[in-house]
Amino acid sequence: MATPSETISPRRERTRGRLLDAAFDVFARHGVQAASIEAVCEAAGFTRGAFYSNFASKEELFLALTERETRAQLTALEAAAVNLGPDPVGADAPIRDAVRCVLAAVMPDPAAKQSWSVMALEFELMALRDPQVATRYSAQQRRLRNELVDTLDRLMKDLGLRFAVGSHDAVDLLLGAFEAGQRTALLTGSDDARPSTLIETLVDLLVTPA
Amino acid sequence: MATPSETISPRRERTRGRLLDAAFDVFARHGVQAASIEAVCEAAGFTRGAFYSNFASKEELFLALTERETRAQLTALEAAAVNLGPDPVGADAPIRDAVRCVLAAVMPDPAAKQSWSVMALEFELMALRDPQVATRYSAQQRRLRNELVDTLDRLMKDLGLRFAVGSHDAVDLLLGAFEAGQRTALLTGSDDARPSTLIETLVDLLVTPA
DNA sequence: GGTTCTCGATACATCCACGTATCCGATACA
DNA sequence: TGTATCGGATACGTGGATGTATCGAGAACC
């Protein structure tokens, strides 16, 4: 994938990485729109000159960041799927645990959880405003969602269960409930570790014996 | 409600109204963060002087706007409830129609639909960042949501149906699915009039005969 | 009809972020 | 070790948004 013969120097690679890390932090703290390029550079220990030598604009940075995050989520998802496949979790409420596990894979770090769900919101917003960004962004999202569908399908089959609705709809509903729950949790300030009971309610509705 | 003896001159009232209208427009078009106060004033046909004589900051404007909108949505909701109460819609798929009708009441204008769902996102974001805004904003949202719960409860009772889960959870799920569907619709560019089939799928899951 | 006060307009000073053009040190390569 | 290129730093000019202090017209009130 990506441009084949376009070799990137390791030095450049590192500074790009540090800039992305810093961007994640600063975006999470101050918001994507509100965050100045300067602030990102400062957090990364660089000057604006370095930034403009690596990215053309904040949009480019934004897309590179989501690219990296989506990629990380995809690999995390695959790893989780491998772990779940052969030997399902507890026998108690296997689906709940499994779903929770899969969701945790996509959104692992509880500290980053908050930052990420807020940033995801903002990313979506940027995409909603800029059609050019929208196409790239929604492609990324689609990939992630499809992967989720596949993983859950396989998981359900392994567990001898099935969704009451199409798996695409199921995933859409799950994601919607997940995000909604997380946001209201953030708003009300309740820092529950669990992704709200809403998901589990929905899972009970969605999952039926095969 | 509000400050009792603090009389507001009719003149002031009008300019405030025009500023709010303009803010709705400009916010929808350019985004809340991106929109400059100046732009709002220009759209309203005023100068910045007028603005600062009516609002202390953009946050104040924002809160006044959401206040007005939620109020409007609440009254629309009540009106819809009255219409639905005595004589349910079609006999075909009464719940679907009813739910769609209620949702349409909360989010009526198809043209404003897009603007509003984007703005709602952005509002939530502002609230997520500013704790002071969050308390006021989430109070508004809670009011609206509770009203929705009541309306749907009454509606279901009238139709001889019931939710498979608690009505609060049901409303949360419905709202989540609604927003998620709307946003993905916006992202993919499909300008469906219907609020996506996701809602109907969910309604079928949620609603059972009493 | 005159006086007062309200409210929006005008003008000003400030600040901050942006993007670019240029420079200089370090690294790679011979 | 000498040289050329790469990549980040420095410095500059610019534009736009903010908030405030002041002014003047017109409405309200007697």
UniProtKB/TrEMBL annotation, chains A, B:
Residues 13-73 form the HTH tetR-type domain. PROSITE patterns: HTH_TETR_2. InterPro entries: BetI_C (IPR039538), Homeodomain-like_sf (IPR009057), HTH-type_TetR-like_transc_reg (IPR050109), HTH_TetR (IPR001647), Tet_transcr_reg_TetR-rel_C_sf (IPR036271). It comes from the Bacteria. Keywords: DNA-binding, Repressor, Transcription, Transcription regulation. Residues 36-55 bind DNA. PANTHER family: HTH-TYPE TRANSCRIPTIONAL REGULATOR RUTR, TRANSCRIPTIONAL REGULATORY PROTEIN. This is TetR/AcrR family transcriptional regulator.
